[in-house]
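Let's do one together. I've listed all components of the complex below, 323 residues spread over two lines.
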Amino acid sequence: MDIPYTVQPRADTGLYNAKLGIWLFLASEVMLFGALFSSYILLRVGSPDWLYEDAKDLSVALGTFNTAVLITSSITMVMSWASLKLGDFNRYKLYMGLTILLGLTFMVVKSFEYGGKFSHGVYPSTHTFYAIYFTLTGLHALHVLGGMAVNIYLWGPGSRLWKTNPEQLTNRVEVSGLFWHFVDLVWIFLFPVLYLL
Amino acid sequence: MDTHDSMEFKRHIRTYVWVFVALLVATVITVAVSYFHFGAEDSHVGNVTVALLIAGFKAFLVAAFFMHLISERLAIYVLVGFTAAHCFGMITFTVYDYYSTPDMTEHTQKLDQRVTRPVVGLRHEP
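Okay, and this is what the predicted structure of the assembly comes out as:
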C-alpha cells in the first residue's frame, strides 16, 4: 500500500503529510523543553545558593564553539535541501556529510565537557544547577544523536531514493532539516541560560 | 525547476548565508555582553533580559528563514501559534504561581511540629 501525500500536498492543508507530521512532533517538543525551562526558572529563583559565573566552572569557550558548530550545521543542512531543489545531488551529499560531521563535532566537544565534570566529581547530584544542566544538555544531546541518525540514513542508503523519486527525497531532507533546526534553536536558548547567566 | 525559479532559489541561498553571518555575529555579541552588568548591582534581571532578547532574535532568524516560517501555509501558522501560546502560558502561570504564593517556610515548620507531636487518642497498638 502506498502512503498518500508523500510528495503532493493535500488539498485541505496545502502540505504534504510528513511536513504536517514533523510540525506536530515539534509542537510536542516545544512543550517538553518548555516544561524543563519552567523547571529551570523555578529552581533558579527558588535556590538560595544558585551558581553564578566562575562558580559554575563551565567553559564559555567550549560552549561558544559548540554554538558556532550548531549554527554552521544549520546552514549546511538547509544548503543540502537547497542543493536537491536545484537538482545537484553531489552537492547535497557534500552538505549533508558536513552536517553529520558538525553534529559529530558537537557531540565530541560535549563528551569532553561531561568527561571533565565527571573526572572532577561533578554529577547531577552535586548541585541543583548541575541537576538541571545535565538534564537539559543531556536531553538536547539525545536529540542531536537522533537527528544525526536520520541524516546518516538520508546521506547513505536513503539517498538511493534520488534515482526513483527525487521529490520524495527532497521532502524527507526538508523534514529532517526542520528537526535539525529545532535542535539548533533549543541550543540557542540553552547556551546563554546555562553558560553565561 | 525552470530558469526563473532557479534564479529565485539562488536568491534564497544568499539570504541563508546572510542569516548565518547574523547568527554568528549575534553569538559573539551574546558572549561579549555577558561580561558587562546591566541593571541593579545585586540583580541579574538586566543580564537575563539582554541575553534572552538576543537569543529570541537568533531564534526568530532560525525559525523564519531556515525553517521557512516566513512563507508557510496557514495550517503551520495555526499550529505554531497554538503551541507558542500554550508554552508561554505554561511558563508564565508557573512563574506567577511561584511569586503569588506567600512564603510557606514558617507555616510548613509549624505543620512539621504538629505532625511530630504525639496525637492524643491515637492507638499505636495493632
